[in-house]
């Protein structure tokens, strides 16, 4: 009877102890599995992108012309991956423009995918960017650059000592 009275008076504490115990058990289980997780090939290739084969890619410019975009530059290149339909890209527009205008010596190149060149051209007329933008639909290159969501940036071929 005494135990039942204590449980009735402290049921909130008991519920909290049970929840904390379950959380602890789950954390121990997840930590034990953490050792078996390995980096994906795309993530591993971005650790040192120099020489991984992402320094050039076949693309289409806003006028629909096929081209090869070479990202190599003496001071490095900032690749900005974005999408016309991305709300966060629209919200980030002023920031990427300021970044591009402040990068004296580093090249900035825009990359988008899944967009027709005519649509890209119309978009850029309404919301200009101060750098070239290309349509790249090569899934191997996009994966090697670890571009899986927009907006994203990647600095290629630069070291801190390359800074002008």
Explained architecture:
This protein has 164 residues and is an alpha/beta fold. It has two domains: 2-34; 41-162, Glutaredoxin (3-Layer(aba) Sandwich), CATH 3.40.30. The protein has seven helices and six strands, in the order αααβββααβαβαβ. The chain has helices at residues 2-9, 11-34, 41-46, 87-91, 93-102, 117-126, 139-144, and strands spanning 56-60, 66-70, 77-81, 107-112, 133-135, 152-156. A four-stranded mixed β-sheet has the order 5-4-3-6, with no helix packed on it. A two-stranded antiparallel sheet has the order 1-2. The longest helix has 24 residues, at 11-34. The radius of gyration is 25 Å and the shape is elongated. Residues 37-51 have low confidence and may be disordered.
What secondary-structure arrangement, pairings included, does this model have?
Blueprint (H helix, E strand, L loop, with lengths): L1 H8 L1 H24 L6 H6 L9 E5 L5 E5 L6 E5 L5 H5 L1 H10 L4 E6 L4 H10 L6 E3 L3 H6 L7 E5 L8
Parallel strand pairs: 3-4, 4-5
Antiparallel strand pairs: 1-2, 3-6
Offer a concise description of the structure.
The chain has 164 residues and is an alpha/beta fold. The protein has helices spanning 2-9, 11-34, 41-46, 87-91, 93-102, 117-126, 139-144; strands at residues 56-60, 66-70, 77-81, 107-112, 133-135, 152-156.
């Amino acid at each position: 009877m005494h135990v039942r009275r204590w449980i009735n008076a402290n049921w909130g504490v008991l519920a909290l102890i049970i929840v904390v115990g379950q959380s602890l058990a789950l954390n121990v289980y997840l930590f034990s599995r953490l050792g078996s997780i390995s980096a994906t090939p795309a993530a591993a290739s971005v650790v040192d992108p120099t020489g991984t084969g992402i320094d050039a890619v076949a693309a289409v410019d806003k006028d629909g012309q096929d081209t090869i975009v070479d990202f190599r530059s003496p001071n490095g290149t900032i690749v900005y991956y974005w999408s016309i339909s991305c709300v966060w890209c629209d919200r980030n527009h002023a920031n990427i423009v300021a970044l591009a205008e402040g990068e004296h010596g580093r090249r900035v190149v825009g990359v988008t995918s899944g967009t027709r060149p005519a649509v890209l051209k119309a978009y850029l007329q309404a919301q200009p960017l101060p750098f070239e933008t290309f349509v790249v639909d090569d899934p191997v290159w996009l994966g090697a650059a670890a571009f899986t969501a927009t907006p994203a940036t990647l600095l290629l071929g630069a070291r801190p000592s390359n800074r002008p």
